[in-house]
Specification:
By secondary structure, the protein is an alpha/beta fold. The chain contains ten helices and 14 strands. It starts with a helix and ends in a 24-residue tail after the last strand. The relative contact order is 0.14.
Length: about 325
């Protein structure tokens, strides 16, 4: 019989490449890892690892078991949490992964409200940009991922296996030095910045910038690139170039020495919360989803950076349906 603790050990060994590294990750000794691996191999009746000197690799059976381990462990976590809630244990744990500007704007409000409503629920937070955050969710290393996708992107996101909760539409704005010729403009077409030096953000945002600029007929001259939003704002404020950032990112810093100007036509990214269908049924995860939704504007997908526009919070996943809160991954259920 395969035990969950053995699967966790196998996954750690496959990820780290050694018994000693897996022991450090799991908080146990190398002999304990070795014993559990032997017990698992005895249970399945076939070798899962091939050891050659200092190297270690998975057998075909080991690779197959690792592929299934994340889904099995996620299902077990969902079962344990739900049973605990039914039994009256007012506790829960949520592992949340968010991109930086979401961590500094949406997450604090949501988690403060969650703690007030459910003080027994513990939430851990790590930062990762999509697509890495989505990979962590699928690998079973988090329960909930705050992510984003750009409207009209050349490559569509493949989230068909996930529950997708839209939170808000985040509009991109141009950042220019406060003495720039366009600093007082109400709006600007990105083509008007074609001859400017550029400061680019994170790799994904950088790719989107190039795509939008090329769509306007030019390739941006990127002089500086940094993942740090305050650094982007500081470089613009020093007169070293211009930038385009999501409004949410601008809200997360104090933009000194710069002016924000609305881009026309609008360029937006959709901020979403993602989880697995099984995990969406866990009370602590569902409560965190609800608080994230409320943090963005009382359950509506609010468009940041463009006052007065609102979009209904429609949970995508069933082609042809609009205006209904449909969570992808839960066929036949409506919210």
């Amino acid at each position: 019989m395969i035990e969950a603790r053995h699967l966790r050990v196998l996954r750690a060994v496959a990820t780290t490449g050694s018994f000693s590294a897996a022991g450090r990750e799991l908080g146990c000794t190398q002999p304990a890892v070795s014993q559990q691996m032997k017990a698992l191999e005895t249970s399945v009746g076939t070798p899962l690892l091939v050891r050659s000197g200092r190297e270690m690799r998975l057998t075909q059976a080991g690779e197959a078991l690792v592929r299934h381990a994340s889904g099995i462990l996620a299902g077990l976590t969902a079962a344990e949490e739900e049973v605990a809630a039914i039994a009256g244990l007012r506790a829960g744990r949520v592992r949340l992964v968010s991109f930086p500007s979401g961590s500094s704007t949406l997450v604090p409000t949501a988690l403060a409200a969650l703690r007030a409503a459910h003080p027994g629920t513990r939430v851990s937070l790590e930062e990762a940009e999509p697509p890495r955050s989505v990979e962590l969710l699928r690998e079973g290393d988090c329960d909930l991922a705050l992510a984003f996708r750009y409207e009209g992107a050349a490559v569509a996101e493949d989230w068909d296996d996930l529950v997708v909760r839209p939170l808000l539409m985040d509009r991109l704005v141009a950042l220019v030095p406060e003495r720039h010729r366009l600093a007082r403009a109400e709006s600007v077409a990105i083509g008007e910045l074609a001859q400017e030096p550029w400061i680019a953000g994170c790799p994904r945002c950088r790719g989107q910038l190039v795509e939008v600029c090329e769509g306007a007929g030019f390739t941006p001259r990127i002089d500086f690139a940094t993942d740090d939003y305050p650094a982007v704002v500081g470089l613009v404020g020093a007169g070293l170039g211009v930038a385009v950032l999501p409004q949410l990112a601008v809200e997360s810093v104090r933009p000194r020495g710069v002016r924000t100007v609305r881009l026309e036509p609008a360029v937006r990214r959709e901020i979403v919360a993602l989880t697995l269908p099984d995990l969406a049924q866990v009370p602590a995860v569902a409560a965190t989803l609800e608080q994230l939704t409320r943090a963005t504007g009382r359950g509506q997908a609010v468009e940041r950076g463009h006052t007065g526009e609102r979009g209904q919070a429609v949970e995508r996943g069933q082609a042809g349906e609009r205006g209904q809160a449909v969570e992808r991954g839960q066929a036949g259920e409506r919210g």
